[in-house]
Amino acid sequence: MRLLAQALAELLDEPVVAGAEGKVVLANRAAASLLGCEAESLIGRAMHEVMQFECAFGEGEVDLHCSLVLPGGRRLWGRRREIDWGERGRAVRFTPDPAAVGEPTDADGVVNFHGLITRDPALRHTFTVIRNVAQSDATVLVRGESGTGKELVARAIHEESNRRDQPFLAINCAALTPSLLDSELFGHVRGAFTGAIKDHAGLFQRADGGTLFLDEVAELPLELQAKLLRVLQERSFIPVGGSRGVTVDVRIVAATHRSLREAVRGGSFREDLMYRLRVVPLFLPPLRERRQDVSLLLWHFIGQHNAVGVRRVECIAPEAMRALLDHPWPGNVRELKNVVEYAFAVGRGAELRLDELPPEFREAAVPSASPLAARGAGDEAERIRSALREAGGRVDEAARLLGVSRATFWRKRKRAGV
């Protein structure tokens, strides 16, 4: 039987067969050549040591997006397939294919648009909208969670417009008191209040001819909303303590992490101003809805640190990569960037390990976020059906509820016949 299995293995590409205990029981010449060793030397070794996969995205038994760590830390992109060999164990077949994922560059579907990096089709469509709307002076409202890149979108609109050679200024409307925000936006004249010893040009005046980005615009005090509405309608305003209007030509890009319609219903935001601001609404998806971008952005930020720091990361430990891929990323791209910076600060060596990630990555499993993940083994098929019902049929959400990756969810679903 062993000779028959070995003969079958030789007919396949790069297969390594593991037994029930997870140790290699068969390996053919193609696998040995790929891994740079003798086939016999692989026998008896743990499968996760022989073939270290850094990431995995796909459906069923096929991971269409994965990378294999080769001797010396070099990564080879390709496709992985797990084949059930019954009592003999399982075979892992890896087919090198750089186009399967693509290195984190501007090729193979990866777009770097003014610092916004993605291969997500929805976000790439947003880039097309940005290019088009930038050719007009229409006011844009960017909606997205913290850390999704709202200011990068505002800068992209500015850089794609004919205002690119004029100022781009930004302010967080939630960061200042109403009086300071009034002065900072619209300026003040000498003697307007105690301490106003000279005239001060506000952001609107300093951004004349260019673009002004109003972040967290939903937090703008009601008393300033009327003044902002006047600027949008008449392109003029009166500085604090002033008596004469100032005319400006400023393109407004606003951003918020919460719905302006809800703010209007709650009485904290003017409806007429909402319509003025959201002439062109843009929605930025959170990173948890762009799972294919996690590894892409991860290696992008690693590359930035490799280029300037004393440490150079060449590979990621499998358990660290799995923790990174399973993380919900509530802080989105900003959080991912900070996690990489943390790892470079506390760790050393060519491999990024799990113990070099922030504490929350090393705590007990993520599944505790959902009662479905804490019910124990039980009937796996029923747990999968319950997760799908609760997630409204969305596979990504169902996998999150069960505390597993999308690829693992597909494998469990197929095994359970759901």
Automatic annotation (TrEMBL):
Highest rank taxon of the organism: Bacteria
Domain PAS positions: 1-53
Sigma-54 factor interaction domain location: 116-345
InterPro entries for the chain: AAA+_ATPase, AAA_lid_NorR, HTH_Fis, PAS, Sigma_54_int, Sigma_54_int_dom_ATP-bd_1, Sigma_54_int_dom_ATP-bd_2, Sigma_54_int_dom_CS
Keyword flag Iron: no
Sample GO molecular function, one term: sequence-specific DNA binding
Entries under SMART domains matching the protein: AAA
Pfam families tied to this protein: AAA_lid_14 (PF25601), HTH_8 (PF02954), Sigma54_activat (PF00158)
Keyword vocabulary terms for this entry: ATP-binding, DNA-binding, Nucleotide-binding, Transcription, Transcription regulation
One GO-annotated biological process of the protein: regulation of DNA-templated transcription
Coiled coil feature spans: none
Protein name: Sigma-54-dependent Fis family transcriptional regulator
Organism: Methylogaea oryzae
